[in-house]
Amino acid sequence: MITNESYVPGLAGVIASETAISLLDTEKEKIIIRGHDLIELSRTNSYTDIIHLLLENELPSDSEKEAMFQKLKNNYNVPEEIFDLLKLLPKETHPMDGQRTALSALAGYDSRIDDRSPEANKQKAYQLLGQLPTITVNSYRILNGKDPVYPDPNLSYSANFLYMITGKKPTELEGNIFDRSLLLYSEHEMPNSTFTARVIASTNSDIYGALTGAVTSLKGNLHGGANEAVMYLLNQADSVSQFEKILKQKLANKEKVMGFGHRVYMNRIDPRALIMKESLAELCDLKGDSTLLDMCEAGERLMEKEKGLYPNLDYYAAPVYWMLGIPIPLYTPIFFSSRSAGIAAHVIEQHENNRLFRPRVHYVGKPLS
Question: For this structure, is 314 an active site residue?
């Protein structure tokens, strides 16, 4: 029976699913991905290793790494008609909407669209993960009047992704840092986009539909769009004092400061943000200019003092992407592209042990007359 006491706004803390994929262990302060610590994985493994872990339930051997990379690489290209479709969109379209449109359209090219078996779903997941960098980058390029750019199969997965974005082959450090960011964004238990995908999958809809819904969810600035907002905020200042002044004014106006606070990490910094903070320091050292790092650290101190809020992953990922030469409108599409590995694993799990989501409401309208 539904009672007033059982209503929880935003479903905060409500257990919605059983999963063997991941857990935010607040007691041990760990992000657990199939029995592994995500932060430790970010120091020792690559993003493609995490794809294998998420989809195959274990980290890959050396031979499995190569086989999986070939599987991804074989799916880098997308039908040219997808680019033609993107050219029809209004130029004001956000790249994330272009990404969503292209992803949805790919469903029509899948001859096994109605096969929900784990084997078929995994095949679709690998194919989509191979195609997503090409879709992500070219939705931005085409909407900005540029010709499509094509993958370089001689580069690693993440290096190729970054190459298509910037037009130059990344250095080893740049490639490693970008790969690290993809890994950290890859899976995070049950945020809104993952929950959206599972709800859609619970109707027995296909993986394309589930991921398309997840794109829409992730676009909102209370979820994925925060990284873009963080960089726009940082770009309003060119010094520590100026950035602090801007933050104090926003707080005085009772405005939300993006990049701070998290529904799970209430009283501490997001551990993923700490890794990106280290990456930002590496890039600043390389450039010989610590301005962005100094501004971010000052903002971190100010927000903790004034509001008791701590940085989430987006706060430090944004300046890292800026220093890698990534255009701001691509930040959230990149987030979705990397998170698709985790979302795909959730869709597969939902299809394997499905129950339709059908919650109830607490009615506060007029009584029956």
Answer: yes
Q: For tokens 């790919």, name the residue.
A: 106
The residue from 36, 94, 188, 262 that is catalytic is 262
Residue 262 annotated in active site: yes
- Give the tens place of pLDDT for each residue, 224-261: 888 999 999 999 999 999 999 999 999 999 999 999 97
**H or E, element range at 138:** helix 118-143
Catalytic residue among 36, 188, 314, 346: 314
Answer for the pair 231, 276: CB distance below 8 angstroms, yes or no.
no
The band of 5, judged by pLDDT with boundaries at 50, 70 and 90, is low
What is the fold, at CATH topology level, of the domain defined by 30-219+342-352? Answer: Citrate Synthase; domain 1 (1.10.580)
Write down the domain spans for the chain.
Answer: 30-219+342-352, 226-323
Alpha carbon 365 to chain centroid distance? 37
CATH code of the domain made up of 226-323? 1.10.230.10
Average pLDDT over residues 34-49: 97
Give yes or no: 351 in active site: no
